Amino acid sequence: MCAAFAAGFLVFPTYPVYDSYYALLWGREILDGRLPEFDGFRVPTQHPLAIAAGTVLSLLGDVAERVWIALVLASLLWLVWGVYRLAAEATTTLVGVVAAVLVLTRFDLGFLAARGYVDVPYIALVVWAAVLEQRRPRRGAAVFALLGAAGLLRPEAWVLAALYWLRMAWSAPWRARVGDAVLAAAAPALWVLTDLVATGDPLFSLLHTSGSAEDLGRRRSLAELPAAVPAFLENILKRPVLLAAVAGVAVGVAMAPRRLLMPLVLLATGLGTFAAIAAAGLSVIERYLTVTAVALTVFAAVAVAGWTMLAPSRLRTAWMACAGVLAAAGAAYTAANLDLTRFEGELRFRGEAHAALEDVLRSGATAAALRCGPLTVPNHKLVPDARWILDLPAGAVQPRADPRTRPTDGPELFATSRLAVVRHAFTNRADPATIQVPATTHVRASTSPHYAVYVRPGC
Prior knowledge:
The protein contains 20 helices and five strands. By secondary structure, the chain is mostly helical. A three-stranded antiparallel β-sheet has the order 3-5-4. A two-stranded parallel sheet has the order 1-2. Helix 19 links the parallel strand 1 and strand 2.
């Protein structure tokens, strides 16, 4: 698996997604002796651990973006290993192998890793916390440490840490309860402290995320969740695996609820925190259900290979035969519906688009025009990429979709290919079509397969 991932890393060079580029930019700002700029038009929510990683990686210069991808891909491998251990130690080796294969073949997870989303290391940390707790109940500090690290990537882990504190405190002396409470509260305290130091508002992330969710149309009411959750999970897992998981939950609860306690806890808390996100008015998007989806792969594996938990009998033989039919049907469904060319095309576009963006931004015409004013881009999507490539501060790259952006004499960047327009220009229905219309004072000065830069002559 490591060799395959290394080959994929080299064959399909990809680069960080929008949120992750900001972590690198904020790390660069810290290295420059400046406070990170968390405020701005559709700027993503900050994640303290990602900023810390971005600060260290920024020391590497331009290669930092590729090292970031390598670390997230390594996190995916760590996640697959963790799911195997979680399932195998709770049931049997074959169940663990099936669960690991199911996670590895959920291409949505692989695509998240290829684009450097922090969700992947977050899920890995949560799964390994469950593995350690499963191996030795009430383990304590090691589990709190993993949940604390996860809580510096996504606030849902704060709920997990609080629930774990309740578990630890049930029969512990008061001194241990206080010590564990400090460990459980460390992540939210560090998050609030980061907001306070950078912005002066300890609740900046919560308020900013709520506002961004409304602007981007990502809010869902609690009444919408019963329909949205199954649809999201089906998109991540695909229908055969989701149906097998539902059957596996029923079988697992009936047959070995104690052994499958940790996967059940991950499933329940994943659904619960997702509902809490919706109730708080924050962004409700598919990838926030990945912890739930990963837990369901364990139960799908129970449905397929749980017969190995039984002694030889007619029931075991019948289950094994049914599981074989189920696996064959799932493989046939996958073969009929899987489009690897689309997946390959998306990966190639990420690498080719980045190279094309560098070509137009590093051109002499763009460099000369930057002396006349800030670079403008269609909307928020290309702001961090352009800032990272050109090493520009906040404000030197402005999105034309922002109503506060005014026409300038600086260069204008436009998406020109179909994929670039879809991915980096018209990503929000509220944005006007004029974000892709050059100013009448500007002329085309630099082009590449996916982008073009317009400049004002003689500025």
